[in-house]
Amino acid sequence: MTKYFNYIVFISLLSIFIVFNINDKISTNIQSILPNSENKEILQEFVKFDLNKKILVAVKGTNRESFKKLQTIEKEFSRINGIKIAKLSKNKKFLEYQKQYQFYIDDIDKKRLENIDVKDALFLLYTNILNSFITPTIDKQDPLSLLKKHKVNLNIKNGKLLLDGYGYLSIFTIDNEQKSLHDYESIYDKIQQVESQYNDVKSFSTIYYFVENSRYIKADASRIVYVATFVLVILYLFLLRNLKLLINTLLTLGISAILSTILLILFYDEISVFVLVFGISISTIAIDYMFHHYFHKSYEEDKGFNKDVFIGFFTTFSVFFIFNFVDFLLIKQIAQFAMISLLSSYLIFAFIYPKITFLQNSFSIKVKNLTFINTKYLFVISILLVVYSVQNLTFNFDVQSLDYDNKELKVKEHFFKERLAKKTQEVFIIKAKNINQLINYNERIRKIDIDMSSSLNSLISKEQFFNKQQELDSLSFGMLKRNIELFSAEMGFKQNTFSSAYNTNEIAPKYTYEMLHEFGIPIQKYKDDYISVVYISKNKIKDILQFDFVYSINMKNIFEKSLQEDVNKMIIYGLFCLVFIIAIIFYHSRTNLLYSLTFLVLPSAFILCYLSFIDVNILHIFMFFILLAISIDYAVYSNNHNIFTRKAILFSALSSFAGFGVLIFSSTSSLYSIGSVASLGIIAILILILFTKVKNES
Amino acid sequence: MFRLFFFIALFFTFSNGTIIYFEEEKYIEVMDNSIRKKGTLEFKDNKIILQYDNSKRILIYEDDSLSIQIDDEIQEINLESQIALKMVFLLIESIQKNDFLILQEYFTINKKNKATLLFPNKSLENYIESVEFRKTEILEYLTIIMTNGNKTTIREIND
Fold it and tell me: What pLDDT score was predicted for residue B14?
């Protein structure tokens, strides 16, 4: 029965994974790895706003053919389930409201009011009506045009929006029911299918980032897992030539990865695909434990408890345990994944495999000792390099630098933003306890940035209403109204035509959440508060961000500070790990202290030297300390100097490279960061294994 | 030489454009009164040029924009704030060319007997109530009823 342990457990766990649809809880969204905070929650709320659910479609040219092409595309797009065309119509209820409160929303031209000759003004209106081709629309509440109207200049031709310097533009809205990545993928695929049939058609939506990045990251992760598995298979089949061991090891690694995923899902709503890839890579460290047992014939003879392997496992496990206290969600989850994975693998390799039994096949790899580097010199040079490099490190605290850099889509986004004149403004969230406060906050921003745009600009708070009422009461509308009545009748206007002119006796508007939704104003409930969006001029952002009710949705701005704090914490935890590692070295390798310490300083020198040339991110730092923990395993094993150990170490290093090193083939920044640090560290370890000699080695 | 140049210029002027004479009758709600005017509509090089009899004002509609010329002075009009005016020119252009592709963007088009009825889509329903026209050899009538009660009818007439 024990012989089939791996098969039984693997199938059981895989069944749980499939039955409970765990795969759906693996997220490719960068947000899933970010530290939990109010900012992150607000960012998640922001995504729900309709403005993030638009699809822009542009057709080159403004001639008849282009117009016809756009109409055909619109018809085809309208057949796609989950999206509908956004018409250029104005919201009727919002228009009625604006009409009712126009004297409170718009400003009165006081200069014109003071100097106006009602008779002349009405005569001008009268002749305009008579001479115009089509009777112009007259605002009966403001026949003398005393209100300064805010004009919204839309670039329109033939009822279609125009994209500056390109052609026609059409906007589609994604239904609110379309929320999942699966929904977005379905919409994206259908759009691409239509788009590919036409030339000179471009489309863009923020959901494209979700779909394209997710697909890219998934493909990238799969590619890495395949390459790593392929390298491991080669290693086993051609060098070890032990198929049974290969199958069992792959099953054990599978068990540890699935178990870690299932347990993490129990604690978190979702885990990032990055956690999974890093976790699986880190799991390959566990192969070391198998190699040591295997080469020491623990799987064919009763060799008892292997203390060296345990110390190696304990060191690595403890380092991950320390990093488990870091707030940065990605690192916390990787650390927890690694702890579960390493523990389960270690237990299986150390206690189940001896019962399954695996016989060593003879193979003719000779691990020659090519000693020609003096450890002392290596140690000193490494220390000097470490000291020099540390002084030249520069950090990058932009979380987006960890995500997949979708350059092609960024170019497309820039193309639309530039032509929609959005490049001078940036979107922000404002939060308030109630709607009235939200309007007041919007007004405070407008006082600083008069060019800001927001749907809230057309709303008036209670305070604004009463102030405006006082102002209107002080104006001499009474006389004006009498004169309008008198002269309009004289000129031939219909009786009582202007009876509603300059009537400003309104009651303060009462806004409700539902009412604002009906008006089409972007507003969301967030806990007990309300949030809305405002577009702020880029040159005013610094001033506006001083308000505590303004929230940036720029990931760099939001997470820069917390990431900086996390990096500092990480370094402290890392140094703590270092002390722990050194303590282990002192405990275990007192006789070969310098040799063991070189396993710390040479990989450090290699990695830090490389990092001094690039912008260092949090994952570089994390991986740096993890690699030291792994490296010290090799120091521990190397002290047990015999040919079996040397073989085991060499194979361990190669398998670790298969696990980690392949990450350098990734184009996703975060995966590449881990891969580069790991590869350099493993190269340093290999140099130490192959070219140095333990002091008292036989 | 001058005479030859003059005749060539005259030839091109008349060969490129079509001129129709029209009568406009509009009911003005704020005056509760109707007025009638006559004028010409000239279709030339994708332009529509409108001029009332005995008036110096010339309205030039081209490529979705309108300008008013009085003597040498030209004034650009923002048609986005004068939806009715924009629609009338679009209607005239579409009827003249017998091409209703762009009109479909704004109206639902129905045929009733020999007349064509147009009902505004959502973007126009706050301004225009309905449009009706009948065209045979000539534009027999084009009537636009606005939501504010104004009504305008244009008929092509013999000069």
Answer: 42
Pairing, β B65-70 against β B57-62: antiparallel
Give the integer Cα–Cα distance in Å for A333 and A279: 9
Q: How far is A87 from chain B (nearest CA, A)?
A: 7
B26 at the A interface (CB within 8 A)? yes
Chain B (51-70) residues lying within 8 Å, Cβ to Cβ, of chain A = 52, 55, 57, 59, 63-64
Cβ contacts (< 8 Å) between B122 and chain A: which residues? 87, 89
How many domains does the structure of chain A reveal? 1
| Cβ B56 vs Cβ B70: under 8 Å | yes
State the ipTM, two decimals.
0.83
CB atoms under 10 Å from CB of A267, counted, come to 9
Calculate what percentage of chain B has a pLDDT beyond 90: 35
Distance of CA B124 to the CA centre of its chain: 18
Are A269 and A276 a contacting pair, CB within 8 Å?
no
Measured CA distances, A73 to A165, A172, A197, A371, A470 (Å)? 20, 11, 10, 71, 53
Closest-CA residue of B relative to A95 is B126
Q: Does A421 touch chain B (CB under 8 A)?
A: no
Rounded CA-CA distance A241/A339 in Å is 30
Helix (H) or strand (E) holding A337: helix A329-347
- Cβ within 8 Å, pair B28-A492: no
Whether A68 and chain B come into contact, CB under 8 Å, resolves to: yes
Intervals of chain A under pLDDT 70: 151-154, 362-372, 421-423, 639-645, 693-698
Tell me if B150 and A135 make a contact (CB, 8 A cut-off).
Answer: yes
Q: What is the mean pLDDT of chain B?
A: 83
Residue A594 CA to residue A607 CA, distance in Å, equals: 20
- Which is higher by pLDDT, B7 or A22? A22
Query: CA-to-CA distance for B94 and A454, rounded, in angstroms?
Result: 37
Nearest to B29 by CA among A294, A138, A342: A138
| Amino acid code (one letter) for A618 | I
Q: Choosing among A84, A134, A158, which should be mutated to test the B contact, i.e. which has the most B CBs within 10 A?
A: A134
pLDDT at B57 over 80: yes
Residue A442 inside a domain? The answer is yes
Contact A429, A551 (CB under 8 A): yes
Are B126 and A90 in contact (CB < 8 Å)?
yes
Contact yes or no for B82 and A136 at CB 8 A = yes
What pLDDT sits at residue B2?
A: 47
Give the A:B interface size as CB pairs under 8 Å.
Answer: 86
Determine contact, residues A77/A57, Cβ cutoff 8 Å: yes
List chain B residues with CB under 8 Å of A135. 26, 28-29, 84, 146, 150, 152
The answer, yes or no, to whether residue B66 has pLDDT greater than 70, is: yes
Helices (H), A32-161: 38-46, 64-78, 92-100, 102-105, 110-115, 118-131
Cβ-defined contact of B30 to A154 (cutoff 8 Å): no
Give the pTM.
0.77
Range of the domain at A425: 92-153+420-553
Q: Which residue has 């579960």 as its token pair?
A: A340
Between A265 and B9, name the one with better pLDDT: A265
How many C-alpha atoms does B82 have within 13 Å on its Cβ side? 19
Query: Could you give all domains of chain B from N- to C-terminal order, each with its CATH number?
Result: 21-157 (2.50.20.10)
Residue B29 at interface with chain A, using a CB cutoff of 8 Å: yes
Say what the pLDDT of residue A514 is.
94
- The Cα B43–Cα B19 span in angstroms is 6
B108 at A interface, C-beta within 8 A: no
What pLDDT, on a 0 to 100 scale, did the predictor assign at position B13? 44
Cα–Cα distance for residue pair A472/A104, rounded to 1 Å: 9
Q: Chain B: residue nearest A89 by CA?
A: B123
> Quick one: pLDDT at residue A697?
47
A294 and A239 Cβ atoms separated by less than 8 Å: no
